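Quick sanity check, Lipoprotein:
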Amino acid sequence: MKKNILIAAGIILMAGSSCKTSKTAVESYDAVPDTPTETISVPVEAVVYIKSEKELFEEKTKDIALSINSSPAQTINGADFKTPFSVKVKKTDGSPVENFPILVRYPSKNENGNISFSEEELNTDAEGIAVYIPETPSFSCNTRLDFLPYVQTSDEEVIKAAASLGVSAPWKVRTNLARKGGLIGLVDYNAKGSALADTLSSSLLLKELMNKGFSNIGNFDIPKSMLNDKQAVYKHVNNIVGNSVSYLIYGTIKYLSPIEKNDETYSCTLEADISCMDTKTGNILYSTVKSVTATDTTEWKVISSARAALAKELGQAIIFNM
């Protein structure tokens, strides 16, 4: 009995010793002093997306459309257009856009068929309409007037985007010399390069211009030896007609390529080199070189077709450039 008690006590003693050791270990761990921590700040950069000029422009104009509101009929040099040019700006739902900036680009000079343009800024009214009233035309030309969104930029992409939204109206100003009297002296050449005695091309151009409203106009012989001497031509005209006419249309009509046979048709190309002279001053009002190619069933017909086509092209150029 005593033996059992002693064994039990021994077990209790060992257990108590074991528990004590464990507690000491825990206390020893808890007693370790805190290690100071270091806080590191890492800067975070905010990413901001900046839209391009083109994107901003496209946002501004994505629901907007331009259309020609009014466009005057053609006039003549020195006479006002009967009505103004105007453009209308509206949203896709049809509502007008007020105070929208518009750039108008209009012809400001014609130098021998080369048109220069000037620009002005306009703004739309409460009805979305911007109006341009041109000054009295001081030169003839056949070109166009442009309306497009106005934006101050040198960015080519934005300029291109604005142009794609633009609209145009015809700008036609005829010469004011149509009824002031004139002469036509064109020298025709054959396929071998020799001058002809007839006035076929002069007569065709005369007919074309008369059909377009010209009057007091007729054929006039110009010696081929004078064709390259402007001063000689001027003196020749004045010696014969004086100041009774206002202009002279003169030059040459030559073969640019010989007549060619292609299967059952013939073709040829003619070239006109002409000048329009102010017979009161000797100044050249307009000069041009134009060519046409014609096709027809016979040699004779193809030459006639080419001359007729050339007369139409020359007539149009003279009406809007002389």
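Posting the structure with no commentary besides this: Residues 2-30 form the longest helix (29 residues).
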